Amino acid sequence: MTAVPTEQHSLDEWLAYLESIHSTSIDMGLDRVSEVAKRLEINTSSIKIIVGGTNGKGSTCAMLESIYLAAGYSVGMYTSPHLIHFNERIRLDGSIVQDAAIIAQLAHIEKARGEISLTYFEYTTLAALLLFKQHNVDVAVLEVGLGGRLDAVNIIDADCSIVTSVNVDHTQWLGNTREEIGFEKAHIFRAGKPAICSDPEPPQSLLDYASNTGADLWLFGKDFNYSGDKQQWAFAGRTQRRNALAYPALRGGNQLLNASAALAAIESLRDRLAVPIQAIREGLLQASLPGRFQILPGQPTVILDVAHNPHAAAVLAHNLDGMAYFPYTHGVIGMLNDKDCDEVLKNMGRRIDHWYCASLPGDRARSGQEIANKITALFPADQDGLPTVTVYDTPVSAYEAAQEKMTDNDRVVVFGSFVTVATVMQKLNKR
């Protein structure tokens, strides 16, 4: 769609328009979006928390949202990408924003931008900020899309910033080393404001940037930490200790690290946003985020995880190891060609007995056959003929083939990209 849509057009038509009008889908830089933001007067009195990092951003945002809602605050949350519906990206008080409200803001941005060209992500970031201002939320939780320094979310001066982890991903934009990537992500820190880092081994570049900027840096293992047993866990911050906490509803071994980052941020803002211990307990139990080590009810066991880089795959592998015994594990995988497929597969190791390799749609897609070739090279079949490796045109056909082969005692893990998980999730939702 190239003609400018109106408020009578559908959200899908608006999104197609946004995808068509800028020369590239990713155009790092703040000059264009900052100028349009100035025209829109997006400044708001809300407490703003920006969350960046390679992995764990979405989970940390979800826990912050849930805890602040349980404490009685009005909360806006902006995350990306979405799994199935675009509206998942923008939430007000725990509910996704409806089409008409988003369209109204996109139309407002379209009029304000004039001659300035914006990317899809820049438009939608501005739309979220306008909605948060319109609804006068107490807290705005914003997830960085890519990196930090030149990401559109970074036009906001955060009252508190969080970097969850620093690992190698998006190398064409952020650099090839943790030091380069850490430098990019650290740019969401602000002078005199709390800057939370929950990476247990932060790169020196992040530490240096925080120091040079004058940010109030909170480091995991120094300024905050956690401990726990099989029944409950506890958080220790600079001045507060939260005891007898139930484990987060979000599953996985890394979720206590993400929860600790959220609680450190909440402690750092306690003078402006008081949060009682009961709200923390309730919030952790109610937080939800589809596709993050999501285990579906029933048999056979189905696990959905958007893990698509080496670090996330290592966490997924650890979480799989922590589950009960299963005779066979079936893996449905589909990946994009700009992700480190070899390292993702190496981190999964021989945990998968039967591989179902799916091709994905689009220019960035990696073919199922290419993934299958890598698996065969990395993991030659043993004396029992495992692993088996088969190729499919789509994630749905791969998942259906796994269903036919599985017994009720087996498990299947669907992973490799947001697209892979979303496609299978849509199939499951139609049951």
List the defining traits of the structure above.
EC 6.3.2.17, ATP-binding, tetrahydrofolylpolyglutamate synthase activity, eight-stranded mixed β-sheet, alpha/beta, single chain, 431 residues
Q: What would your notes on this structure say?
A:
With 431 residues, the chain is of the alpha/beta class. 38% of the residues lie in helices and 17% in strands. Strand 12 and strand 13 form a beta hairpin. The longest helix has 15 residues, at 99-113. It is globular, with a radius of gyration of 22 Å.
Fold blueprint:
Blueprint: H1 11-21, H2 31-40, E1 47-52, H3 57-70, E2 75-78, E3 90-92, E4 95-96, H4 99-113, H5 120-134, E5 139-143, E6 160-163, H6 171-174, H7 178-185, E7 194-197, H8 204-213, E8 216-219, E9 225-228, E10 233-236, E11 241-245, H9 255-268, H10 277-286, E12 294-296, E13 301-304, H11 310-321, E14 329-333, H12 341-348, E15 354-358, H13 368-378, E16 388-392, H14 395-405, E17 411-415, H15 418-429
Helix pairs in contact: 2-4, 3-9, 3-10, 4-5, 7-8, 11-12, 12-13
Describe the structure concisely for a colleague.
Its EC number is 6.3.2.12, 6.3.2.17. The protein has helices at 11-21, 31-40, 57-70, 99-113, 120-134, 171-174, 178-185, 204-213, 255-268, 277-286, 310-321, 341-348, 368-378, 395-405, 418-429, and strands spanning 47-52, 75-78, 90-92, 95-96, 139-143, 160-163, 194-197, 216-219, 225-228, 233-236, 241-245, 294-296, 301-304, 329-333, 354-358, 388-392, 411-415.
